[in-house]
Amino acid sequence: TLPQISIITPCLNGLPFLPRTVESVISRRDAVRLEYIVVDGGSSDGSIDCLKTYADELIRSEEHTSELQSH
User: Fold this and answer.
1) pLDDT over 90 (residue 45)
2) 20 to 30 A Cα–Cα from 38, which one of 2, 20, 48, 59?
3) What b-and-e string marks burial along 22-52, b requiring 16 or more CB atoms within 10 Å of the CB?
């Protein structure tokens, strides 16, 4: 059996990096049983729309706004 791993990607206005990150993670699905979660902290740069294009590929994406996000 393949090992199971969980990967969580935090995102806040990370559109320039998001497609490459998501594609890198999902390209390894054949090597492991993958739980992949992207947590968005309230992006306003189109990150949410980008994540929607991966809806069939992602296990889960969540949107949260938080005052605790570092800047």
Assistant:
1) yes
2) 2
3) beebbeeeeeeebebebebbebeeebbebbe
Closest by Cα among 16, 15, 10 to 41 = 10
What sign has the CA pseudo-torsion 14, 20, 23, 24?
negative
pLDDT on residue 67: 56
What pLDDT, on the 0 to 100 scale, is given for residue 66?
Answer: 59
Its pTM stands at 0.78
Strand partners, 35: 6
The C-alpha atoms of residue 40 and residue 17 are separated, in whole angstroms, by 13
State the chain's mean pLDDT as an integer: 86
